[in-house]
Structure formats: C-alpha cells, structure tokens
Write the structure tokens for this entry.
Amino acid sequence: MREKEASLDLSIVVPVYNEEENIDRLYERISESVGRLGKSFEVIFIDDGSTDSSFSHLDAIARGDGRVKVVRFARNFGQTAALAAGIDYADGRVIVPLDADLQNDPADVSLLLDKLEEGYDVVSGWRKNRQDELLTRLIPSWIANKVISVISGVRLHDYGCSLKAYRREVIKGVRLYGEMHRFVPIYATWMGATVAEIPVSHHSRQFGKSKYGIGRTSKVILDLLTVKFLAEYSTKPIYVFGSAGLWSFVAAVLTFVWMVVLKYVYHTTFIQTPLPVLSAMFLMLGVQFILMGLLAELLMRTYHESQGKRIYLVKTLVNLNSCSESPRRGSGLVED
C-alpha cells in the first residue's frame, strides 16, 4: 500500500508516561515556540499507559486545540513503541520527537529546522550542558555514547537526546524495537542519509520522576549489537555463524594436535588434561554454528522471497517510475 502524502510542515511527537505535572506547561511552550515558526504543525501525544491523570490532561488539551492529537496505549510499552506510534500517525514533512518532562526546550525546534534546511536528512540534539546526576546518568551515558560511536561508526556526542528532527522519507521506513529509538540516526546513516548534530538546551527536571536509570545501559548495548548485526549481516547471516563455526573447528584441531603432542612427546595421558573434552566441545560448537548459519540463511531467503522484498535501497530514479515492479522481484537474492 502506498504511503499517503504529508499534509503538514511539522509533526511534534511526544511520548508521555506519568507526566501529569508537566503536560500543560509543555503544551503551552510548544504552542508558543512552534507557533512562531509560521509553519503548519501538529502535536501528537502518545500516552504510554500512564497510571496518573496524564490522559485527562491530554484529552482536555486535544478538545480545545485541533492541532493536538492523542494516542493512548492499552498499557505501558516503552518509549520506543511510543515513538514508533507517533511516527506512524504523523502527517508532517518533518518529524520532531520531544520528551514530555520539560528537560528538552521546544524553542530549540527552530534550531533543528534551520540546520535541516542546510540539506541534512537528520539533525540530532546534543545536550552539551546536561542537567542530570553525575553517577547515575552522566557517566553511564558518556560510556554508552562512546561505545555506540565505536561500534556503529556514526560519531555523535549524545544518542540519548530525544530532541531530533527527521525528514519524513528517512524515518517512515524505519522499524523500531527494544530500546532502538536512540539508534535512528545510525539507521539513517546506513541507509545513505546525512546526519548533523547541534547543541541544544537541557533543563533539570522540575516535576515528576525520571523513568530512566543505570540499568538501561546493558539493554542499550545489546540492542546496539542487534542493530549492527541487522545492518551488516541481515542478508548474509552465514558470514557471522559460519566464521564462528570455522574458528571453532580451528580451535578443535589445535587442541587435538596439542593433546597428541602431550601424549607422545611429554608422555601425558589424555585423562590428565581437559584437552579431549575441549577438542570435542569446540568440534560440536563448530558444527552447531555452521548449522545455525544455514538455518538463518534459509529464514532470510524465505523472508525476502515470500514477500518480494528487495535487499537494496534506491535513493534516486531517473526516467523510471518508483512504483514499477523490479524485473527480478521475488526471484531471490542477488550476488554480492
């Protein structure tokens, strides 16, 4: 099904979870700051299963302002799901996520849009003077940002800043899971988009309680590994599992050779060392990794071929219809 055309200049997407003290103030600041831009806009609040009176506040605001739209979840699904829902319902040519806790400043939206006008596809906010606690927020965030930059190859100072601006065509094709909302600039870069980063304001939380803690760091790292795997090996998983299997075979052979050397050169019986067990273990691991790789290959080929999905992304077409069928659509994967 073809995606509908954007009807507005700007969509502000705000995930909300138990922010009853902040909602009215946030709406006033968004209306004031974004209203001055002279652009048509909407504000989409995603109530992520709040257990306080957040939805009542949102409902009252929406009844008084047709630019405000509210999506209420049946239960708490997390920030990534809330952002994904906001993107799905957005009608703007530019989509700007924003936190509901008043730590992001809606006045900075104009800065993001100005940078976007320079030709970038994504502009990410950088909380350069971040107003959070050192041990529980700043240090874990600094470590996570460094690790993410090294693994992904995309150099940003602040992946966790929700305040970003995306061109519609860049973000509409992204599917988010887990804690992967912070990795959208990485997805965009891997898809050929241009990404910029600018400093934005950051305020200390005045009302409510932070929903984030140091325990999220491990989840972020695991999600990053998933993102890296999907980006590099989603169409060739045998390269990962097969490499691990081959190295396991090498370890099995080396262990076996050293075991034989110990037996016949140093007269050490097999039962005096763990080498026979290690050799057998590495051999079995190698077989399992190879079989897992083959199974993953079958799954990915079934996924692509059964749905006619392509393993490439076209940026520009000249004298061709973007909706035309591929001459090999559904015929399988192409060779690298």
Observations:
- The chain has a mean pLDDT of 81.
- Residues 56 and 181 are 26 Å apart (CA to CA).
- The first helix runs from residue 23 to 35.
